[in-house]
């Protein structure tokens, strides 16, 4: 029988033969040959069903909720029949994809490319797959990440939950001459740009996960207390930042300075959170190379989404991504991004970063 220390990444990503899930036929449900057979009309129908799943693709006015409308065939949009509304809307109105100039097949192809990599997808690779400008690919990816981020906002974790934090950013380039180099581990020599990604994850197959970005782990304690059900069992390491959680939750700790797992069958561990941080660091070093602090939460949510979807086939991942994006409000940060400077600095899943535009 596997010990609890083996119930993390290995069990989730490998099948009985020992090969990785992404090497199996079960993963390969959306090959390029299938994408090539999809027409623009097919892609538009798919987007309709992803946008309005409750009505199986029948349009619902995003402004007033009315189901009555006229179809404006020349504009490929609808006009609400409600007398107090009468607004026009399309499939992407009121979502991060609003005002798009891409075809539906291009956006579907981009979603397929975005979900293809276990360690993320960079904008240059995306532009090579879909054939549009780098600026277009970069903003589209960030809108996909906002959809993922929005899908995590209302999560309240239950059951067995692991928590942990990992530090990112704040790289200090060494001086050329050895005599001028400093110990970059000392607080006095830090540049103030390091930030901590704190996450919580349900310990079960398909378990949900949430992430946040903070200046210190202490700042995350109240957020974790609100985000984890009071009846949940929390597994954490020895970091003093988690001490306050003992007042509200059943917390079991492992001292990582002495061992990685403890308790009966090594049940007390944070291996699934360590798996997430391993993925996020490989996304940073191997795919994106650098993640600016203002975008760290978006990339962390991207990594968390990929982690919990690690045993979901490619086609389902693509559909889940589109559902998340089309259920999110219009982006404040990336609507007209290249016309007015950088995106908003967002750290909290609960911050109202989507409502309204500047």
UniProtKB/TrEMBL annotation:
InterPro entries: Tnp_ISXO2-like, Transposase_Zn_ribbon. Residues 156-308 form the ISXO2-like transposase domain. Coiled coil: none annotated. This is ISXO2-like transposase domain-containing protein. It comes from Sphingomonas metalli. The lineage of its organism: Bacteria, Pseudomonadati, Pseudomonadota, Alphaproteobacteria, Sphingomonadales. Residues 1-22 are annotated as: Disordered.
